[in-house]
């Protein structure tokens, strides 16, 4: 019944033609092309609207039939991005979506008779139409839907069903409207007004509101009858009208894909950009540190001689050349220096020695090959032939003055390179040399000495005729050529005195060390240091011998200490009145050390791989253990035995001490101390390990579980709310996954970023750890918990961003009408349908822009807070971490826009923020006070000792730490350091190692003044004290303190505090402390040795047992380390103190083995069920301690609780 077009006419019955874009004019407006056109050229005035109304009054509708015009069928305005849809099909589908009843159900509900068969619907309907409809519904009239059924029963007007529905709805609306004009009880209209309104028609309304005359409209404007004014020219058909504009699909995201992808990639690259910036910062900080270290170091510059020549050395095929400087020194030495003027190689020339010089005859004639007998060749490349000629002349002049023979020849450059025996080729020759050397010494078959190239016979001959220089001999021993030991050994082995060792000479020495008896080795040692060759070893020569041995330990003994060792060894052997020793006397001094001498070898590195397969070094296992016998107090013992001979801990062999014969006690004395060990299966061991883990970390597990449960609960609550319980705004239907992910993570992240502040309330944590809450909350793990929260929060922040990426995409492809429904305060549906582009959401909204800035801030903070960067630039970490203020400002602004929900961040943030501000105010009140430095001392290994005034009311416990700042450095950054002073002392002290630019410059400004000796030290600012795990040492009956390097600082305070309290008779739970000090050389931390010495003097109750491990010394039984052990034993025996440290504590050489040590503690303290282990030092050491504790805790014995701190 709907026509395809609408006429327009004026009051004089002129039907005007309509203009159409691209079609010219037409007699009427085409319906399908006029939907929702706001700016139609044919309706641009009120008069044009009047013409449209007059045309509609004159136009007659289509005949009633079963055909719907295409304007409604295929060209109805479409939803969303589709411009067209089928109105009838959409209406039917909408009825299905809304759950409308079927045609029969609707008639029955309204009291109408339900049809039994299809012919009951309407007898006027075309039979073919009825059959086609019945076929669609499988001939079941009860399945006929409401809209098709209502249309089928209508004829000449609405059928019974539609008439009843319309009437029912009208009555309901009328009766329910209190303002209906016929409702006289509302008092709005009088009876006359009601009658007047009832008699008003649409014609009267049109005449009243327009300029149309009564005569231009028929009384009933809905029906045109014969005789009415202005009949239509003809019945409109689609042929007379322009075609409908076809379906178009608007792609809202078209052209935005690349930009959207680039934006996401750019956001993902923020951490990479931050990483790049941090790398640049770390590089420049490293350069600054190098400059400071170079400036602070004593500049011992090696200047090249005036006659030195610069060139490039060619090391061999496929190797890069490098710059060198050649020096020809007056004492017949040829010296090669690198670009830093460090000596690379020294060749000692002898009188009448022949030197061969080969010059290249092509390729610029700038290459030179210098061949010196028994040395590897030197190939030099000069910048020009002139420079090479200058060097040749320079060399010729010196050869004349040195009485050396010089043979000059020429060949092509390629041939010169092939002829050269460089260091690389020399290394291969020496590899063969050492393989056959060991093959002869160890009686190994020549075939087992290693694979050789095809020309093996020539290579072997070349290798066996090769002679080692002093530098190559020293390198094979892993020593320096200038070492006294190398000098003595080389002089002894060089029987012909030509300055080189032949295969036979090296073999003779090696045979003694590999197969010789203790007498042979001691005789060899005696001969080595019998410098004057008179058959006697004087005290001076004995002193020289000992001096050469301690070179391995970085000359850790002074001359006075060494002299004391020599005197004690002479006195112990009964030779105190002798000035010279025979070999028999010398061997008698070593009488108790036959086993050590028998294991002594000459540890040769060899020239390449494979030697280790022939000769396994005899490595010593140095185990610290504790024995316990009846009637004897527990004391530390040291041992140095090979792995094959080392007794197990707890076995009778534990009584053996270095240098003493093994004393085997009755087994019953030790079986009493041993506990029965149950053999467990794999699952039982794992279960025990799990139980110990839970026991050790139960507080951590509980706190992490509670915190995680809260975060998960917040996530689930928000996700459920927006998925099922939120008011029907349409956002969940639009982007369900995105809204659940973004809202759930937003709640969790808000909670995490708020309560992470509590982990940095140092003053509050220090206070709470002394309360009962410390039994339930691991306050010492605050920093670890801070890192854990931060990592979890950044993961959730990434998920939050991913959720919003999904949201932005969906909103960017949603029509404006939908967005205006979801965000009515932001969008207005102006009919354009076009949504905002993705960049509007990212960069032109408050949540989007603050979100991008938050990602940038997080990328900077997280990268600069990484362990790798923090160790290289603490200042960069310190500055970027202060971006947390900007972070919280952005978080508050981010949610304040209330785009989806009302702001909620303040709910989580307010309480932690107030606590944190209060804690910071406490710290700021202390930071304002300047503290004078009483004493500043520069110690070895870059350690600075600062002693400063103790502020009034400053109370602390041993093991606690403080933060200090020094404004004299030009920065107000604070750095944490452990106090090394004890609580009873009047001043505070710190030992600070120069590990970065700040600590290096701190050491520099506290250097002793050169001019004014009365100059005052710069003042400090102090913040603290703060608590940490090491201060709980007194809560265990037995505690083990393990310090490595500068990590010993907290234990200095603990040891002094323990001895002080014991001297006062204070009651303490801690009855025994074992202190393990691991250091490369005791000279690095001599200040700690002074503290230990003080502890030993005041420790009258044997509370402290100290074990010192010096790791610099080689862990192999070569000649020198064997003699060092012998010297240490003599020093301990005679003076009851260590040769190296001067302490009563026994010194061990090598690294400690923690598992046997902890195992022995269980034997000594069988009734102690829990032992505290506190370690501080490099991560590698603390990991070894943790691993040992875990292994021991698998057993059903004492439980080891480990607290550690890395630096």
From TrEMBL:
One of its GO terms (cellular component) is NADPH oxidase complex. Residues 481-516, 517-552 form the EF-hand domain. GO terms for biological process: defense response; hormone biosynthetic process; hydrogen peroxide catabolic process; response to oxidative stress; superoxide anion generation; thyroid hormone generation. It comes from the Eukaryota. Its EC number is 1.6.3.1. Its main location: membrane. SUPFAM superfamilies: EF-hand, Ferredoxin reductase-like, C-terminal NADP-linked domain, Heme-dependent peroxidases, Riboflavin synthase domain-like. It is found in: Apical cell membrane. It is a multi-pass membrane protein. In the N-terminal section; belongs to the peroxidase family. Generates hydrogen peroxide which is required for the activity of thyroid peroxidase/TPO and lactoperoxidase/LPO. Plays a role in thyroid hormones synthesis and lactoperoxidase-mediated antimicrobial defense at the surface of mucosa. May have its own peroxidase activity through its N-terminal peroxidase-like domain. This is NAD(P)H oxidase (H2O2-forming). It comes from Neophocaena asiaeorientalis asiaeorientalis. The lineage of its organism: Eukaryota, Metazoa, Chordata, Craniata, Vertebrata.
């Amino acid at each position: 019944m709907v026509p395809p077009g609408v006429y327009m006419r004026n009051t004089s019955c002129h039907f005007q033609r309509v203009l159409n874009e691209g079609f010219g004019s037409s007699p009427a407006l085409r319906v399908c092309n006029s939907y929702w056109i706001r700016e139609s050229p044919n309706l641009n005035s009120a008069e044009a609207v009047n013409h449209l109304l007059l045309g509609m009054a004159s136009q007659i509708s289509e005949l009633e039939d079963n055909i719907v015009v295409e304007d409604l069928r295929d060209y109805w305005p479409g939803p969303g991005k589709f411009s067209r849809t089928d109105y009838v099909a959409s209406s039917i589908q909408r009825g299905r979506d809304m759950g409308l009843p079927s045609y029969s159900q609707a008639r029955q509900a309204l009291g109408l008779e339900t049809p039994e068969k299809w012919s009951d619907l309407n007898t006027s309907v075309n039979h073919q139409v009825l059959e086609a409809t019945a076929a669609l519904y499988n001939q079941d009239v009860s399945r006929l839907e409401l809209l098709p059924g209502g249309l089928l029963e209508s004829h000449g007007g609405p059928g019974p069903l539609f008439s009843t529905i319309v009437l029912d709805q009208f009555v309901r609306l009328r009766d329910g409207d209190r303002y209906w004009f016929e409702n006289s009880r509302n008092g709005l209209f009088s009876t006359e007004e009601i009658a007047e309104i009832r008699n008003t028609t649409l014609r009267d309304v049109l005449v009243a509101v327009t300029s149309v005359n009564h005569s231009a409209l028929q009384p009933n404007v809905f029906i045109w009858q014969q005789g009415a004014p202005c009949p239509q020219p003809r019945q409109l058909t689609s042929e007379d009208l322009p075609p409908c504009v076809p379906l178009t699909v608007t792609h809202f995201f078209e052209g935005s894909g690349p930009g959207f992808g680039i934006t996401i990639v750019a956001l993902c690259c923020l951490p990479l950009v931050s990483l790049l910036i941090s790398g640049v910062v770390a590089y420049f900080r490293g350069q600054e540190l190098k400059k400071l270290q170079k400036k602070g170091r004593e500049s011992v510059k090696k200047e090249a001689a005036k006659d030195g020549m610069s060139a490039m050395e060619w090391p061999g095929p496929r190797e890069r050349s490098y710059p060198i400087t050649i020096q020809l020194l007056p004492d017949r030495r040829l010296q090669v220096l690198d670009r830093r003027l460090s000596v690379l190689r020294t060749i000692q020339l002898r009188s009448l020695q022949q030197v061969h010089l080969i010059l290249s005859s092509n390729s610029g004639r700038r290459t030179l090959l210098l061949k010196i007998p028994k040395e590897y060749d030197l190939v030099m490349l000069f910048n020009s032939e002139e420079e090479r000629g200058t060097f040749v002349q320079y060399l010729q002049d010196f050869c004349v003055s040195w009485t050396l023979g010089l043979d000059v020849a020429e060949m092509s450059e390629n041939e010169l390179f092939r002829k050269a025996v460089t260091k690389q080729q020399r290394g291969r020759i020496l590899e063969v040399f050492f393989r056959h050397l060991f093959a002869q010494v160890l009686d190994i078959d020549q075939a087992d000495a290693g694979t050789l190239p095809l020309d093996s016979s020539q290579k072997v001959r070349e290798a066996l005729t090769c002679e080692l220089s002093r530098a190559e001999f020293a390198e094979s021993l892993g020593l320096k050529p200038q070492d006294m030991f190398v000098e003595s050994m080389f002089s002894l082995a060089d029987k012909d005195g030509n300055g080189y060792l032949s295969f036979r000479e090296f073999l003779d020495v090696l045979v003694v060390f590999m197969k010789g008896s203790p007498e042979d080795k001691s005789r060899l040692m005696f001969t080595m240091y019998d410098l004057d060759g008179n058959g006697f070893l004087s005290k001076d020569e004995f002193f020289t011998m000992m001096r050469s041995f301690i070179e391995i330990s970085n000359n850790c003994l002074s001359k006075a200490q060494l002299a004391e060792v020599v005197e004690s060894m002479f006195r112990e052997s009964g030779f105190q009145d002798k000035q010279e020793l025979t070999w028999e006397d010398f061997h008698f001094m070593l009488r108790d050390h036959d086993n050590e001498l028998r294991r002594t070898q000459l540890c040769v590195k060899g020239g390449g791989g494979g030697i280790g397969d022939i000769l396994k070094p005899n490595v010593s296992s140095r185990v610290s253990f504790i024995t316990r016998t009846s009637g004897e107090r527990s004391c530390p013992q040291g041992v140095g035995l090979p792995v094959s001979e080392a007794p197990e801990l707890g076995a009778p062999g534990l009584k053996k001490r270095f240098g003493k014969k093994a004393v085997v006690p009755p087994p019953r004395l030790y079986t009493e101390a041993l506990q029965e060990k149950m053999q467990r299966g794999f699952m039982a061991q794992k279960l025990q390990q799990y139980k110990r883990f839970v026991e050790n970390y139960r507080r951590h597990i509980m706190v992490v579980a509670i915190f995680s449960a809260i975060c998960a609960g917040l996530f689930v609550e928000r996700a459920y709310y927006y998925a099922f319980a939120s008011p029907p705004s349409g956002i969940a239907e639009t982007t369900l996954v995105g809204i659940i992910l973004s809202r759930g993570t937003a709640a969790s992240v808000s909670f995490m970023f708020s309560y992470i502040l509590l982990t940095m309330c140092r003053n509050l944590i220090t206070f709470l750890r002394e309360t009962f809450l410390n039994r339930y909350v691991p306050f010492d793990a605050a920093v670890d918990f801070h890192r854990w929260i931060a990592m979890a929060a950044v993961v959730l922040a990434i998920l939050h961003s991913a959720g919003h990426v999904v949201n932005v995409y969906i909103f960017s492809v949603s029509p404006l009408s939908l967005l205006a429904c979801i965000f009515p305060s932001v969008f207005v549906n102006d009919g354009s349908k076009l949504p905002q582009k993705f960049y509007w959401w990212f960069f032109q909204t408050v949540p989007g822009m603050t979100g991008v800035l938050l990602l940038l801030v997080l990328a900077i903070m997280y990268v600069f807070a990484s362990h790798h960067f923090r160790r290289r630039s603490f200042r960069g970490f310190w500055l970027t971490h202060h971006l947390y203020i900007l972070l919280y400002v952005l978080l508050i602004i981010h949610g304040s826009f209330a785009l989806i929900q009302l702001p909620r961040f303040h709910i989580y943030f307010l309480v932690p923020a107030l606590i944190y501000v209060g804690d910071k105010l406490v710290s700021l009140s202390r930071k304002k006070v300047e503290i004078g430095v009483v004493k500043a001392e520069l110690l070895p290994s870059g350690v600075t000792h600062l002693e400063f005034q103790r502020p009034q009311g400053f109370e602390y416990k041993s093991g606690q730490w403080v933060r200090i700042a020094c404004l004299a450095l030009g920065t107000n950054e604070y750095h944490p350091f452990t106090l090394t002073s004890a609580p009873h002392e009047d001043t505070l002290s710190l030992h600070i190692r120069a590990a970065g630019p700040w600590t290096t410059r701190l050491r520099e400004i506290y250097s002793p003044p050169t001019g004014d000796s009365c100059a005052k030290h710069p003042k400090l600012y102090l913040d603290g004290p703060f608590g940490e795990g090491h201060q709980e040492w007194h809560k265990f009956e037995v505690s083990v303190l393990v310090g490595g390097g500068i990590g010993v600082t907290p234990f200095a305070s603990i040891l002094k505090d323990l001895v002080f309290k014991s001297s006062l008779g204070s009651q303490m739970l801690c009855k025994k402390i074992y202190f393990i000090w691991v250091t490369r050389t005791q000279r690095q931390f001599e200040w700690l040795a002074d503290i230990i010495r003080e502890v030993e003097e005041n420790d009258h109750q044997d509370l402290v047992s100290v074990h010192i491990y010096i790791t610099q010394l080689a862990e192999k039984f070569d000649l020198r380390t064997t003699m060092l052990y012998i010297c240490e034993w003599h020093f301990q025996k005679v003076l009851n103190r260590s040769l190296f440290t001067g302490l009563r504590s026994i010194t061990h050489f090598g690294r400690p083995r923690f598992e046997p040590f902890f195992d022995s503690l269980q034997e000594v303290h069988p009734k102690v069920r829990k032992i505290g282990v506190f370690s501080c030092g490099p991560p590698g050491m603390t990991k070894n301690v943790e691993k040992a504790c875990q292994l021991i805790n698998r057993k059903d014995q004492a439980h080891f609780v480990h607290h550690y701190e890395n630096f």
